[in-house]
Write a structure and sequence with these properties.
Layout lengths: L7 H12 L5 E5 L5 E6 L4 E6 L6 H16 L17 E3 L2 E7 L13 H18 L16 H25 L45 H4 L5
């Protein structure tokens, strides 16, 4: 866990200087690899994130641009706060720092989510992936240069395992599911979906974009029903 470079008084001063906000109190949030501090003001609550030095401003700017793009597409994403100089970040002691509106929610450790949370996560991941297809800047980046060959190969294997595991989970609760939209979106690694015509889909109301990029699978021919 990254330690903050600001003490309480320094934090109040830097937030006032960069954002014009008066900090009433603050508290540390132990989550993720960044240093995260929840900030209370007289109007709203925010989180101040200090990123590790390995995440330079170019990396953070890309993240900000993507999130703001998704926001403009009516996706529920974090809201970045602009500094007084008009930027969405500032740099201090070789760290990039950003401020976001606080979101009241919860986080889940890796491989700790229950079945409903896995399905919900898959749904939103599919929605995000679909929206990013129209984000032109994404295709201008040299993504391959960010990772080693071994990293990419391992990531592909993990993606295949994750999709198959997700399929197994969904089949266990299928009779109780009503919304399956986007769940298998982008799961190209699902090479074998056996007995799909025998799935119990009696309660399902929405299957939009279920197999979004699987052009070889005509879902509406397999399930010719008016869902």
């Amino acid at each position: 866990m990254l330690e903050s470079m600001f003490n309480e008084n320094e934090l109040k001063n830097i937030v006032k200087e960069k954002y014009g906000l008066e900090v009433i109190k603050s508290e540390k949030i132990n989550r993720g690899s960044a240093s995260i501090t929840k900030i209370y003001t007289d109007k709203k609550e925010y989180v101040l994130k200090e990123f590790q030095e390995k995440y330079n401003k170019d990396f953070i700017i890309k993240e900000i641009d993507i999130v703001n793009f998704l926001s403009n597409r009516n996706m529920k994403v974090p809201v970045y706060i602009k500094c007084l100089d008009g930027k969405y970040y500032f740099e201090e002691n070789e760290r990039v720092v950003i401020l976001q509106e606080y979101i009241d929610g919860y986080t889940i450790d890796n491989n700790k989510g229950n079945m409903d949370q896995v399905i919900e996560s898959a749904k939103y991941l599919g929605m995000i992936t679909k929206e990013l297809e129209s984000y032109d800047e994404l295709w201008k980046w040299d993504v391959e240069s960010w990772f080693t060959k071994d990293y990419l190969e391992n990531a592909i294997k993990k993606a295949a395992n994750s999709c198959n595991n997700l399929l197994e989970l969904v089949l266990k609760v299928l009779s109780n599911v009503t919304n399956m939209s986007y769940i298998f979106s982008k799961c190209n690694s699902l090479l074998n979906i056996s007995n799909i015509s025998k799935w119990n889909i009696s309660n399902i109301k929405d299957i939009s974009y279920l197999f979004y990029v699987r052009s070889t699978l005509d879902f509406y021919q397999i399930f010719p029903i008016g869902i």
